[in-house]
């Protein structure tokens, strides 16, 4: 899949007409390319990130704008901190026998009490709705 995307991107850089044949109009991929005098603008349709792509010596290179890069670095830092916090919370969590996080006895009692009340009420409603004139 990665190779196909790379070939499509290279084809778009080399020959826009060929790229249109590779990527059908109704089958838009993750990236859209728009030609500019400097090269191509690549839009990531999932994240909205924009990059300027150029070719030099037959090699394609895409560079994100400075504001995009700082936003990406901020998001990476936030996710790294969140990941570290979650790992610490997981390590500090009490372990259950067998490694399974089973419900507590009181939680099971609450669930069963709720189910019992529900079934009793349903039975009462069904009895009240029975036809009165059975023959």
Describe the protein's architecture and organization.
Among the domains are: 2-64, no CATH class; 103-130. The protein has helices spanning 2-14, 16-22, 66-92, 105-128, and strands at 31-36, 39-44, 50-56, 59-64. Strand 3 and strand 4 (59-64) form a beta hairpin. With 135 residues, the protein is of the alpha+beta class. The longest helix has 27 residues, at 66-92. It has a 4-stranded antiparallel sheet with strand order 1-2-3-4. Residues 15-24 have low confidence and may be disordered.
Structural descriptors:
135 residues; alpha+beta; 4-stranded antiparallel beta sheet; 4 helices; 53% helix
N- and C-termini, Cα separation: 72 Å
Using DSSP, what is the number of strands? 4
* Oligomeric state, counting identical vs distinct chains: single chain
Q: What radius of gyration results from the CA coordinates?
A: 30 Å
Coarse shape = elongated
Helical run tally: 4
Residue-averaged pLDDT, rounded? 77
| Helix/sheet category | alpha+beta
Low-confidence stretches: 15-24
Q: Write out the strand line-up for the largest beta sheet, numbering strands in chain order.
A: 1-2-3-4
What's the helix and strand layout?
Elements: H1 2-14, H2 16-22, E1 31-36, E2 39-44, E3 50-56, E4 59-64, H3 66-92, H4 105-128
Antiparallel strand pairs: 1-2, 2-3, 3-4
Helix pairs in contact: 1-2
């Amino acid at each position: 899949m990665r190779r196909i995307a790379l070939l499509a991107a290279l084809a778009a850089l080399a020959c826009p007409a060929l790229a249109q044949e590779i990527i059908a109009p109704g089958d838009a991929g993750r990236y859209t390319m728009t030609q500019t005098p400097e090269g191509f603008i690549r839009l990531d349709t999932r994240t909205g990130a924009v990059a300027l792509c150029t070719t030099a010596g037959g090699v394609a290179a895409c560079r994100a704008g400075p504001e995009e890069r700082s936003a990406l670095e901020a998001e990476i830092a936030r996710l790294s901190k969140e990941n570290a916090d979650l790992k610490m919370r997981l390590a500090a969590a009490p372990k259950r026998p067998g490694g399974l996080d089973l419900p507590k006895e009181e939680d099971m009692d609450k669930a069963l009490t709720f189910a019992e009340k529900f079934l009793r009420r349903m039975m009462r409603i069904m009895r009240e709705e029975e036809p009165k004139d059975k023959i």
